[in-house]
Amino acid sequence: MQKVESIQTFDQIKLLADSRRMEILRILMASQATLTHLARTLDRSPAWIRHHIKLLESANLVEIAEIRKAGTVTEKYYRARAGAFFLQELILPKGKKPAVIFSGSHDLALEVVASSISTYVNLLNLPVGSLDGLVNLRQGLCHISGAHLLDENGQYNTPYVRRFFPDREVEIITLANRTQGLMVRAGNPKNINQISELAHTGIRFVNRNPGSGTRLWLDNELKKTEISSDAILGYDHAVPTHSEAAVLIKNGRADTALGLQAAAHLYGLDFIPLFEERYDLILPREQQKTLAPLLDYLQTAAFRAKLKSLAGYNPVHTGEQIPL
User: Fold this and answer.
1) Hey, what domains does the chain have and what are their CATH numbers?
2) Is the pLDDT of residue 92 over 90?
3) Are the C-beta atoms of 49 and 42 separated by less than 8 Å?
4) Which residues fall within 8 angstroms of residue 274, CB to CB, at 6 or more apart?
5) What is the pTM of this model?
6) What digits encode the pLDDT tens for the residues 115-131?
7) DSSP conformational letter for 248
8) I want to staple 267 with a disulfide (CB 3.0 to 4.6 A). Which of 3, 169, 179, 246 is the partner?
9) Taken in order 95, 100, 103, 104, is the CA torsion positive or negative?
């Protein structure tokens, strides 16, 4: 089985921006070929083909597969170094302060952090959910992630981090404990008070994206109470942040969603608390220096005071390192 490799440098991307070199690479992904064969296929001279092959070789995209001799004639057969390639490169702003990509579960306190450290670090947000955030961190598509994943043994995040990073040194730092529950319109006109009522006729639900810690918690509760997701109107309507879910409820486009107490409070919604969870930041050890302003800010009294001002946030364990 042939492998798939990632294209991770701008030099490789620049080379493949030329459609002619891309075409050569695609032919060599399918089967090995000589300069003569490529020249005939593309209706170009062998010298022209050789020029582009050398560039692809220098970028580690093409290699010599074998050398065949027939009498006095020697032919080199070239092949792509992988059966397929995918692009994987962050394009970051160029400025005086470092740009840091966060990818993971949406969190309102993290927005406070980004604003407070903006003088030193440009923290950019890609909310994709807890699981996909760890995937992005593993693949080098972000510098730090955030998760609130509860495993079957009642542990938050550590079992998942161990599975994703068995061969890399990473740290888990608690951002805060926070309360989640059902966000409902002011006055709770549908009288919604527990998860089982999501299956009642006429209740419009808005979900979180697959792979988010909130969605995984909900799916586990539905399984325990033997409620089919098909019975919930709007189960397949998903948004990536607590804030987006709250806005839909506020605007009358949904009746309820599972989300943060802080999001409900921010948008003037009523809230039925269901559980408290631990939200952690996950970062590779090599990112410690770049992320120092963020990690230092977590230890300040100013940040703890701001956490206390967010409904449902508990700063008692903020800044603590969780052992792996």
Assistant:
1) 4-87 (1.10.10.10), 99-322 (3.40.190.290)
2) no
3) yes
4) 180, 181, 182, 195, 258
5) 0.80
6) 999 999 999 999 999 99
7) H
8) 246
9) negative
